[in-house]
Amino acid sequence: MDTYSYAQSQALFDRAVKVIPCGVPGHMSPAVNIPPSAYPIYAARSEGALFWDVDGNEFIDYMCGYGPMILGYRNPVVDGAARRQADEADLTMCASPKMVELAETLVDMVDAMDWAFFAKNGGDVTNYAAMVARSATGRKKMVAIKGGYHGVAPWMQALGHHGILEEDHTHTLRIPWNDVAAFEQVIAEHPGNVAGFIATPYHVPTFYDNELPDPGYWKQIEAICRKEGIVLIVDDIRHGFRLNMKGSHVHYGFTPDLVCYCKALANGYPISALMGTEAMKNEAAKVFYTGSYWYQAVPMAAALACLEELKRLDAPAWMLKQGSDLFGKMETMAAGYGFHLKVTGEPSMPNVRLTDDPSGMLHQAWCAECTKRGAFFASHHNWFISTAHDDEVVARTLAICDEAFQVIKEAAERGRLAS
Question: Radius of gyration (Cα) for the chain, nearest Å?
Answer without folding.
Answer: 22
